[in-house]
Write a structure and sequence with these properties.
With 371 residues, the protein is of the alpha/beta class. The chain contains 14 helices and 13 strands. The longest helix has 19 residues, at 336-354. The structure holds ligand GMT. Residues 12-15, 17, 119-121, 149, 172, 208, 279-284 line the site of ligand GMT.
Length: 371
């Protein structure tokens, strides 16, 4: 099939899911056209059935605001028409599904089908704002198909948007060949010079991630044992989190690495992955950690309980419950046998339930049903 994938090219999970999906679909013989404002991946390796169409937004002085949605719609129309696409797959409803709907209306004579995949704050946060809600509802009611990355997100969408069609749940996925624990003796000394246990958190440091809670958890753990906290990523909460570490006098035990590409090496150095989010429709970073054999301590909200098996691959607690999360972390760090069991369970759970070979065919089935 000829599939157009509309997504954000950023570090965020929805961009990663869309990019990995496109590449795996191309490996399975489909022709993939990425449409975005920047290349969604480092197109190092040439593949004859992957194309990238960049949306170019002209800046006319009269316009105080960016007209990306209109430029995106025109680009989608162009790619549908001249590449003869079968499917447009919009990842993250705002503005991708809205542009998709508009494109279909302009091209009323084509048989193009629009599939919208919901990822999280397009429904639970941004999508609820009066500026977007009516258009998100309209774009869902008029999509030919809708998927959500968790049962939680499906139910949340049906509850807040009362749409007139079913939503398929297709969980996010992991390539277990790529995300596996590697030898990290080379970088370990820099991460934990005194061979302390390592806590890690990876995110875009937005308020919903509650990154400061990872420092509060480290503070509790340090009362019992030496430990290091590695914070990977950057965003609006980084400054406040740095300030908190300094106020608690534990900055020497916290490493702010900023945005990094070497996630697998860094995860391979870690003993526990922390994801204390307030809102999380799936938690792709937790799945990546589990695939690298890192047990997860997280909040029991959103889609996280569909990823982390409490008492098997890690633990979940109410968000903000620092005491309980810290207790779980200490339990894992002080009991090597338990850690080994949870690490093996994490890897097996990631491979058995979220492997690309299980998930990608689910998307192909949805495409086939649409056509
Ligand atoms: O929803 C967002 O804030 C951004 C989005 C993203 O692009 O990272 O994150 C969502 O999509 C991810 C991929 O499906 C999910 O793993 C995240 O849980 C989800 N974020 C939230 O729900 C806050």
């Amino acid at each position: 099939m000829k599939i157009g994938i509309v997504c954000y090219p950023t570090f965020g999970g929805s961009g990663i899911v869309a990019t990995e999906l496109g590449q795996k679909l191309a490996e399975r013989g489909h022709q993939i056209h990425f449409i975005s404002y920047a290349s969604p991946m480092r197109l190092e390796k040439y593949r004859e059935n992957i194309f990238y169409h960049e949306v170019d937004v002209s800046h006319y002085p009269l316009f105080e605001f960016n007209l990306y949605t209109l430029a995106l719609t025109s680009k989608i129309i162009d790619v549908i028409k001249f590449e003869k696409l079968d499917i447009i797959h919009a990842h993250y409803a705002i503005p991708h599904a809205i542009s998709g709907i508009l494109s279909k209306q302009v091209l009323s004579d084509t048989k193009i089908k629009l599939l919208t995949t919901l990822h999280g704050t397009d429904i639970t946060l941004v999508g609820l704002e009066p500026a977007f809600h009516p258009l998100v509802k309209y774009s869902l009611d008029n999509s030919d198909g809708i998927t959500a990355v968790s049962n939680y997100l499906k139910n949340n969408t049906l509850q807040h948007f009362k749409i007139n069609k079913d939503i398929s749940v297709i969980h996010n996925f992991i390539d277990p060949e790529l995300y596996q624990r590697v030898d990290c003796t080379e970088i370990k000394p820099a991460i934990c010079p005194n061979r302390e246990k390592v806590l890690i958190h990876i995110s875009n440091f937005r308020p919903v991630k509650r990154v400061k809670d990872t420092v509060l958890i480290l503070n509790e753990v340090l009362k019992e044992m030496p430990a290091r906290l590695v914070l990977v990523g950057d965003g609006p909460e980084r400054g406040e989190t740095e300030k908190l570490a300094r106020e608690l006098g534990i900055s020497e035990h916290v490493k702010f690495l900023g945005k990094q590409h070497a996630l697998i090496e860094l995860l391979s150095c870690a003993d526990v992955f922390l994801l204390p989010s307030q809102s999380e429709s799936f938690g792709l970073a937790a799945l990546e950690a589990m695939s690298c054999g890192v047990p997860v301590v997280a909040s029991n909200i959103g889609g996280i309980p569909e990823v982390v098996a409490h008492g098997e691959t890690g633990y979940v607690a109410e968000f903000g419950d620092i005491k309980r999360m810290s207790k779980y972390v200490i339990e894992l760090l002080t009991n090597q046998r338990k850690w080994n069991v949870f690490s093996e369970n994490s890897r097996r759970h990631a491979v058995d339930k979220f492997n690309t070979d299980i998930i990608i065919p689910q998307y192909e089935k949805v495409y086939e049903d649409l056509l």
